[in-house]
Amino acid sequence: MSSPDFPPLDSRTFRQVLGQFATGVAVVTASAADGTRIGMTMSSFNSVSLDPPLVLFSVDRRAHSLPAMREARGFGINILGEGQRALSDRFARALDDKWNAVDHHLGAHDVPLLAGALAHLECAPHAIHEGGDHEIFIARVLRVSAASAEAPLIFFRGRYHALASTDMPQR
């Protein structure tokens, strides 16, 4: 919605401005009702609440796997390390055989958990909300694990980046 004081935003400019916010990269996974494994790369992942433990991620309404995500009994959130760029790229593609030769094991509600991820969050659906051209999934975290000391995979200005240092001086 625009007003005389604020003309409509150009979507390309809006996307470029949002790209100024560096994010980690996660792959959200699930098992469809027919057992098909689903996975998609996300940078739209963040915490919502500590009590109860809730997180959110958003899915484009045009995503081929959106109907299966809506019906999923659980979600796996796999936080990727800097050495997992190829995995991020693989799950960012639409309609490919994303799971071919991908090392993983099954967690709660048969969600695929990617081997080597920095952390796993095993979740149950909590709510889905409309969010413009996306749907916002809120998930309740059931179980977590962190297995690696590797630095995270970072996405900034439309590209992957590495952290210069994982240590920040204390003030």
Provide the spatial order of strands within the biggest beta sheet. Answer: 3-2-6-9-10-5-4
CATH-derived architecture: Roll
Mean pLDDT over the residues: 90
Approximately how much helix is present in the residues? 10-25%
What is the end-to-end distance? 43 Å
**Main sheet summary:** 7 strands, antiparallel
CATH top level class name: Mainly Beta
Number of DSSP E strands: 12
Number of domains in the coordinates? 1
Identify the CATH homologous superfamily.
Electron Transport, Fmn-binding Protein, Chain A
Computed over alpha carbons, the radius of gyration is 17 Å
Which spans have pLDDT < 50 for at least 5 consecutive residues? none
The helix-and-strand class reads mainly beta
Instruction: Write the CATH fold name.
Output: Pnp Oxidase, Chain A
Tell me what you see in this structure.
This protein is globular. The mean pLDDT is 90. The strands form 3 sheets. A 7-stranded antiparallel β-sheet has the order 3-2-6-9-10-5-4. Strands 1-11-12 form a 3-stranded antiparallel β-sheet, with no helix packed on it. The protein is mainly beta and 171 residues long. The chain has a single domain (24-153), classed as Electron Transport, Fmn-binding Protein, Chain A (Pnp Oxidase, Chain A, Roll). The chain has 3 helices and 12 strands. A hairpin with a 4-residue loop joins strand 4 and strand 5 (54-60). It is 13% helix and 40% strand.
